[in-house]
Amino acid sequence: MTEAKKKSNKFDFRGLLIETGTQLLNYLIILSISLLIGALVIFLSGKDPVAAYAALWKGAFGNRLKIADTLDRTTIMILAGIAGTVAFRTNVINLGLEGQLYIGAFSAALVGFGLTGVPSYIHIPLCLIAGLIGGALWTIPVIYLKMRWNITELVTTLMMNYIGIRFTEYLIAFPFKDPEARMAGTPLLEASARLPKLIQGSTLNIGFIIAIVIAIGMYWFLFGSKTGFEMRMVGLNKDFAAAAGIPVNRSYTLAMMMSGAIVGLGGAIMVMGFFGRFLGGFSSGYGWDGMMIALLAQNHPLGVLPASLFYGALANGALAMQSATGVPQSVVVMVKGSVVFFVTVTVFVNYIKRRLEKWAA
Questions:
Q1: 148: phi > 0 → left, psi -120 to 50 → alpha, else beta; which?
Q2: Quick one: how far is CA 233 from the chain centroid?
């Protein structure tokens, strides 16, 4: 029995090594090809690809403050990616992350400027909780339509995006408009609702630590708890899960609401840590980026961390690249699109895995 256990442990380690090595090599190849595609486009447009990528790197990691700003941009990417991961792991197609982000952000702002005379250690948690609740509540119509009439969330979550964004635009244009603001937005949040900075002179705040904790906590939840196991089983095969007695509807509801809550928390952190108020059009598509990050991470909570850093660096360095070399930011969008394309088709995975298995044998 002892010898059998040893062999089993050895096999498990070998399998883990092959799986990890396959994914790392796959991502390195995909990243290299995507950057080469971007370099080719830059070269054909008459610019220097080396200078462009050097400027992008410098804009993202050039000094201490730039690194801090990149990490701040990564914060919302992490939370949006985790939100996508929770849904997709349960085979829930939540295309409504952008709308849930807006509702969560506005909910946090409402508590941030509407509640006065409370200390920070009470005000900040209340605003964050408001963001969680706002994002989660925005998924309830989707859940109801799914449970009542089996209307696919593919359509309803997509439509709820536009409703959520336009609804918040109405709120800041009329009932909650700050007449002194140059842009349509709510009044400024109370100082007690602002997130403390981690590095003075930068926008990096404790929201980054919150995002890391959420990612680690979600890894434990999905892979270390009974409920997380049930959600993953539903994601793998809903019919089999139902036959095994797993509550499929509960898993669906929980996945959708958790996804909305996490991205709503991301919106709250953006309002409380960066903008200081809710502004119309404050998101540059972070909800959509979250879905791409979840795909790049293959729906693994810890895989979201490096994928989010990659996206955050591209986003933060793109402006510096454009101003220094004249290369438009659309090249970055092309690189991100190429990465997602190659991840989706999994063109290299099988070949790499076969080679590693041969080497390990």
A1: alpha
A2: 23
Identity of the amino acid at 156:
T
CA 61 to CA 11: how far, in whole Å? 40
* DSSP structural state of residue 200: T
- Residue 289 contacts residue 314 (beta carbons within 8 Å): no
What are the Cα distances from residue 336, in Å, to 37, 44, 58, 341?
A: 11, 19, 19, 9
For residues 104 and 114, give the distance between their C-alpha atoms in angstroms, rounded to a whole number.
15
pTM, two decimals, is: 0.90
What domains are defined for the chain?
A: 37-360 (1.10.3470)
Q: Give the span between the Cα atoms of 72 and 205, in whole angstroms.
A: 7
State whether residue 205 is helix, strand or coil: strand
| CA 54/CA 251 separation, integer angstroms | 46
The span from the first CA to the last CA of the chain, in angstroms, equals: 24
Give residue-wise pLDDT tens across range 136-190: 999 999 999 999 999 999 999 999 999 999 999 999 998 999 888 788 889 999 9
Angle value at C-alpha 147, between 160 and 128, nearest 5 degrees: 50
